Amino acid sequence: MQSQNFMVVEDPLSLDRIRGVLTRLEDTIIFSLIERAQFAHNARIYQRGAFPELNALGFQGSWLEWFLKEIETFHAKARRYTSPDEYPFSSDLPDPVLAPLKFPEILYPNSVNANPSILSFYIRTIVPRITRRATMALAASKRANGITGDEEYEDDGNYGSAATIDVEVLQSISKRVHYGKFVSESKFQDNPAAFIHHIQNRNRAALEGLITKPEVERKLLQRLEKKAATYAQDFAPDGEFKRDANGNVDVTGKIDVDGVVELYESFIIPLTKEVEVDYLLNRLSGLSQEDIEKLKHTAT
Ligand SMILES: O=C(O)C(=O)C[C@]1(C(=O)O)C=C[C@@H](O)C=C1
Known about the structure:
Layout: H1 15-36, H2 52-56, H3 63-77, H4 115-130, H5 132-144, H6 159-178, H7 180-190, H8 192-200, H9 204-211, H10 214-232, H11 257-281, H12 289-296
Helix pairs in contact: 1-6, 1-10, 3-6, 6-11, 7-8, 7-11, 8-9, 9-11, 10-11
The site of prephenic acid has 13 residues, from helix 1, helix 10 and helix 11.
Catalytic activity: chorismate = prephenate
Protein name: Chorismate mutase
Organism: Mycena belliarum
């Protein structure tokens, strides 16, 4: 079992351990997407000013931003964001009510944060794609009940449920993407000399070349497709696959499998790599020339 508990883990920079955590996060991400796909798009919850009720509370952002702020305020008090793998989406959060845990210093100090990109991609691309089925089902049920007017079909009014799950999806993608920092630190420590020259020359392409492992990516996408296809299935009460009237396995599924694979291929993996490169670009900041020379001759 690959632990993500930094208080007990023995070798936090083992690439096997880190990849084990990334693999487990695939399940968390797929399951949270399946949950979000139960509800309609509900575009209102992403628009600033769409809920006058929030303005009345003195809050200026969207419904989702309000959820993030409220939930993260509570989690910050429980010191969630002192953990090296947790990044909030909102700012100006309260201090923890408990004294901080003494986490081992695994990462080089840095301010790399991909959450703004995650939030905007999630709203613009992921939600409309994964909610298509719920939206279509809603449209069909409205038509069956004689209700017409397409503009209503994408809104089921479940704003609280949808935003609660949005927060879960966002946090799991954020954790996954920022885990790229651990991958980078591990690769850097394995062979600092290979990276130092490119960091000093700010050569992003060369750094990306060094951290990219096409075979790992290929296997990941293959595994992801199998996982998503399996979790998307509906099972009959006896555990058999659900079949339609003709006895064929019902493959309509709870989630768009290709959508999940594409999400990883075109967004999650590239963004993880961007975080890895950004982290590396900052890896020598504050070090003297002498420190850098010494580093060149160390390798784990
Ligand atoms: O496992 C690694 O080595 C990573 O850097 C992580 C990751 C990924 O995002 O899954 C990113 C880049 C590599 O090409 C392979 C996989």
